[in-house]
Each structure stands twice: as structure tokens, then as C-alpha cells.
Predict the 3D structure of the following.
Amino acid sequence: MLKKKDAYVVAVVGATGAVGVEMVSVLEERNFPVSELRLFASANSEGKVMQYKGKDVTVHTLTKDSFAGVDIALFSAGGSRSLEFAPIAAAAGCIVIDNSAAWRMDKDCPLVVPEVNSHHLKDIPKGIIANPNCSTIQMLVALKPLHDAAKITRIVVTTFQSVSGTGKKAMDELMDQTVALLSFKEPANKVYPHRIAFNCLPHIDVFLDNGYTKEEMKMVHETHKMLDPDIKVTATTVRVPVFRCHAESVNIETEKKLTANEARAILAAAPGVIVYDDPSKNLYPLQIDCVGKDDTYVGRVREDESIENGLNLWVVSDNLRKGAALNAVQIAEELIK
Amino acid sequence: MLKKKDAYVVAVVGATGAVGVEMVSVLEERNFPVSELRLFASANSEGKVMQYKGKDVTVHTLTKDSFAGVDIALFSAGGSRSLEFAPIAAAAGCIVIDNSAAWRMDKDCPLVVPEVNSHHLKDIPKGIIANPNCSTIQMLVALKPLHDAAKITRIVVTTFQSVSGTGKKAMDELMDQTVALLSFKEPANKVYPHRIAFNCLPHIDVFLDNGYTKEEMKMVHETHKMLDPDIKVTATTVRVPVFRCHAESVNIETEKKLTANEARAILAAAPGVIVYDDPSKNLYPLQIDCVGKDDTYVGRVREDESIENGLNLWVVSDNLRKGAALNAVQIAEELIK
């Protein structure tokens, strides 16, 4: 476990990626007690300089010796690097908070959204804490208070996920393809198997034997691990030509009846949730409005008339912040409380 | 009822709109027996010349006298114009096939998708047949064969609808906003209440008292009228920054169990449906691939593991063709059979 100190040596692994950049800025914004910030990335980024609280911090190549003296390491460098380096970091004595999928389903690694299950942080056998998948995080921030109030029995979710979930290269691809199309040129696909500009791809992460994608099954398994293994979940995850923030159409069935007004009141009182729901004024959460926001926005709250006890919700959050960097830093904040 | 002839005088009302243009080209492509084509639109388009089978046809302003001698009138000029002019056209002796929402729920107006309920065309008391909403048409083309095989009890649908569903002005708005953003200019909203470029709007048509939009309730009511009033339906309809074709994430519960393979086999044998479903080759229906296609494409067929008997489907079709113009012309083809 982490020794309490006035300030901590914090490492960001994958510092130059879309999430890594956001991690550095979230640490700064939230004034996390950092005595020293160390930035690591692949050899390509060696010597790159980033800013933290007005000072230059040089990015170094990640090696097995990177973690000496580090208290907390925030990883966002992909699954294979996490598999290799997170145990090395933990053995060197630091607590790893890993944003990849590598450790999420390991029973010895807590998978945590502070608003949902911070009590899972009591025991960290491997010294590794997993940050959940972005699409699961925002869904559970919105559903936890409703589950507490009315016990959710089933979730049918369809996502509208932005390209930043794939990373910087995918954001460039959406931009490049859009420019190419507007210039009557043939757009190239490098990151995605098909064109994303002016198109939706019902395909996120790899396909599994049951016909679902890994992304879809993450929403099932992570909900079970964090919220309740008895909730039935089915998901369809779709990439949309939006740069940042994910939206989700979430249909839930509950044991107890909740009216839309009751649900809105419960959500309005919940941590990390903003209810933004006034159809008479065309107010509902939009991806472009949630960029850089910390909260999860919920709107379009409606009673599902097709079942006895059901609700439809539209849930939007910044996938790079609450969906990744912010949630990781919030876990670190829980650790030092 | 329509008198059988070798060829018919056909009018297209709203000929210069996105759907009207498509109606003219579908009539030509399918070689509908047209003895004379008359094109009508608002006064703004008076004198405009369109092409039909290599010949010029002049667009005239719609008036009360436009329908003398017309056998079949295809309307796509908005609800208020349909409310006013469809009865005038019917009184002049022609059969109206109306693409607006104006007559859809009138019990004396059949609402028809030929693959689903062509038998409803036996009785046309008012001389007006309604063409269903685009998002309902493609959903029911895909669901009718599954309903016949396994009796659908509930549908949870979330749509990804292209801007062409709103019309030509909305297609221009998506283009103009995209260009503005790429030029670092402030994009203007004229058609939609919020920016559509690089954004998704969970708002199609107007909001109703129950919190749903009209578009969402159309999917409920039209499914009941055309397919089965006992099917429970809940819908979330979303506009996405795509020019043409609608996609739908459709979750169904059935009385009888269908495996994914059984569902694919049933769909492959159904009229108007193409199964396009091979995840191992990254094959699934895409909006950009369905432009100009007549069929409804179904992929991502998966058993829903959250309930006993359920399936998830991804359904894509060209909203201007099967979702509007083609379906209207197919209704006309049924009438002259």
C-alpha cells in the first residue's frame, strides 16, 4: 500500500499519447500533490519536452529502471506495455493505475470508478489498479445511483464513441479523411478498416467468437465486476465521426418503478453527474459541449413504455477525461485520502 | 381504386426535394409504366427543368388544378402540403402515395411497406396510401421475417440517422459546418438547433409530452399499425453527421428462441434483405456502402446473452430510397400488379 506523504513522485507512462497528455493536465488542474513528475513514452518520444505547472519536463524512454523512487505510476501506453511494465513498476514499490484493458479482469486487481466502487481500493494485492473502459465508466457513473435506488436488472446499451477513444492517430484520420473528401480526393484508411469520415462503424476493438466485439463484452464484464454481477447487460458499440466525448443510449429495466422525475432527482443528487434535460428548450447532452468537462451528463430521461419498470437515458462524457485520465487521477486521490 | 392501364399518368409532388429527385430516378430505373410524368413543387421551383428518360420535364407550381387526369400522385412535399393537397388529388380521381407523416395514423389510410403488409392495400377508402417513416421502414423489412419465424415481443432500437432525412438543406448544413470548422470559422446552425458537424443530436422531429420525440413515437405507432400491435417498442432516435443512409442498433426479444445462424438464414431468404455479416473479414453494413442501394442490409447478428430469447442486429438502408422514394414506387407497383 501507499505510504502517506505530503507529496508524491508520480510517473506518467505513455505521456505523449492522447490520454497521457490529458493525465498531465488533470494532475496540474486538480493540484495533485506531486513532488516530482516523471514522463515516459516509447523511444520515438525520447527528449520531447512537455509542460507541467509552467515548467519543462523531459520525456524519457520507458525502461525497466524507470520506476525507482516512484510512488504512483499512471499507465496509458497500451495493453502489451502494461502487461510487461506494470508488474515491474509494482515490484519497484509503486502503485500502478493502469488505463489499458490488460489487468481489468484480474481478480487481484481492483477495477475502480470512485463514484461507483471506491471500497474496492481497500485491497490491492498486486499493486496494480485497473482503470475501466471509457464507455463503461460513464455508463456506471450514471447508473450507480439508479441501481442503489431501484435495482437495475438489465441494461441494453448502444454507444456513439468518438475517435479519440482510439487515440491521436484516429483523430488525425477523421480530419484527413474529411479534408480529402471535401477536396474530392480518395480518403485513405490506416487506423480503421473502413472510412470513418461521414460514416459510423459498428466495430470497436476486435471481434470475439460470440460475434460481439471486445469493447461490447468489456461493458458486460466490467459492469459485473464493479457494480453487480447479477445485472444482465447487452451492448452494441459504434464509432461515430466525432472527435471527442462518447454518447450512449442506455435502456434499463429496474426491479422497483422509477418515474422519469424520480430518476432525474436521484441523478441530480449523485456525485459526478449533471442532469441536462429540458426538451422544451432543446437541452440535452451533446458531445461537443462536454469536451474538457469532468462530469457525466445525463439527459433524454424517459420512462420506457415497453416494460413495467424501465428508463431510457442519453449519457455523454469526455472519454479522455472521466473516461480515462480524470478517473485515473481520481483513483490516485482516493489512495492518498 | 386504380383502373388497370398499359401506362399511367404519374405526378411527383415536391419533385425538387431530396426525396422527390429520388422518386423521379426510381421511376425511371425501375421502368415504371409512365405515359406522362408531371412534376410539381413550390412556386420557387416554377420553370425548373428535370430529366426523365433523357427528356426535359418542366416543374410547375402545385395548385388545386394540378391533378386532372393524373392516375398516381407521389407526394413528398411536407405534412401541411399533404394535408391540404392529398384529398384534392384523391377527389380528382388519383391514388395518392404520401411520404409525409400527415396520413400515416389515419385508420382509413393504409400504411404500407410491400415486404411487410402489402395486403393492407386491398382497401384504400380515402384514395390515400401513406409511406411510413424511413427509420420504421428499414427496421420492419428486417424484422418481419424474424417476427414470422419467432414472434417478436419487444424491440429496443437506437438509430443513427443521416442528415438527408431532414432534406437537402440539412445536407448543405453538414457540409457548410464541416468546411467552416476546417477553416477555423464559427459554424452557423440554421436547420438544426445545434451543430451537427462532428456531433450527434439525440433529437429528431419535435418533442412530445412523454419526453419522446415524434420520430421515436413513429417507430412505436407505425410498427403497431403495420406489423403487430402487440409488439412492445421503445426507441431513441439520433441524428449523426453522415450524409445519407440510416443505421439502427436493434435489440429484439422473441417468443421462440432463434440462434444467430437461424436468424441469418431467415433474413437471407427474406425479400428486400441482404445479410452482410462476416466479422472475421470486418464485413458489416456501413452507411457509405448503402447509398443508392435498394435493399436493407443486416449485419452484426448476435444472440443477446442478457435474455432467454433475444437478438441484436445492425440494420442499414438508404433512407432516400427504401426509406422513402423506392418504397413509394414499390407501393405503386403493387397497385398496378
The helical segments of chain B are 18-29, 79-91, 114-117, 134-150, 168-182, 214-226, 260-268, 321-335. Chain B has eight helices and 13 strands. Chain B touches chain A through 57 residues (CB under 8 Å).
